Amino acid sequence: MKIVAYHRVSTARQGASGLGLEAQTRAIDEFAKSRGAELVGSFTEVESGKNNQRPELDKALHLAKVTGATLVIAKLDRLSRNAAFLLTLRDSGVKFIAADMPDANDLTVGIMALVAQQEREAISKRTKEALAAAKARGVKLGNPNGAAALRRAGKGNKAGLKAISANANQHALNLSPVIASMKSEGITSLGAIATALNERGMLTPRGGRWHKSSVKNLLARLDELSSRSEQAVA
Question: Which end of the chain is more exposed for a tag (fewer CB within 10 A), N or C?
């Protein structure tokens, strides 16, 4: 097996200092050793994750094409959290593997990319809708306590809580295939799932990072939704 290594750091400072680069290199080296792979080229990009114009990646893809090698990255989010870009890469004809998910297939990668993209867009949309609804009910905007403030105020409580619950349910369903994929890889503890979700760019319903408590809530919600579905069928 021949591989082409691709590393990405987001700032010139990181590129010069090696921050983040060393860990990526180590992950790819360990993957290569585990597969007995031959490294035919290595490329390092100093670029923002939001920028899809990456000359070093273009070079890496070209070398992989002409040599029949597989492009290897340390983590899926080292390429991009932009679904369109990632899916285009997936369909480019170049085989690629993320060292942190070596057994992921195209469907898994596609789902993860779409979830990451959808969550960024949904967060903005939910925020705007929530602010508009609160303003329409006469709620003073800017309260940092969010849903708790609505509960205490008793204004639009039922509608507000219903909307929050619906958003959380949809978010959980979006992440369901990702969680299933992780469990199939042996990632089962709350801490391990939280770490994996953070590393892969997945966000909580509020747009934050995952912790054991939030993963526990997610799994409980998925179990509840599954139970409801089974009862509906029965």
Answer: C
User: Is residue 101 packed enough to be buried (19+ CB in 10 Å), middle (13-18) or exposed (0-12)?
Assistant: buried
Provide the H-helix boundaries in 68-156.
83-90, 106-136, 147-153
Which of these, 68, 72, 57, 94, lies nearest to 26 by C-alpha position?
A: 72
Q: Are 77 and 49 within 8 A, CB to CB?
A: yes
Judge contact between 68 and 61, C-beta under 8 A.
no
Look-up: residue for tokens 């967060």? 123
Class of domain 2-102: alpha beta
pTM tops 0.85, yes or no: no
The residue extents of the domains of the chain are: 2-102, 107-233
Q: pLDDT digits over 26-43, tens only?
A: 999 999 999 999 999 999
Longest CA–CA separation in the chain, Å:
65
Which residues of the chain register pLDDT less than 50?
Answer: 12-19, 143-146, 149-150
**Rounded to whole angstroms, how far apart are CA atoms 92 and 156?**
49
Three-state SS at 82: coil
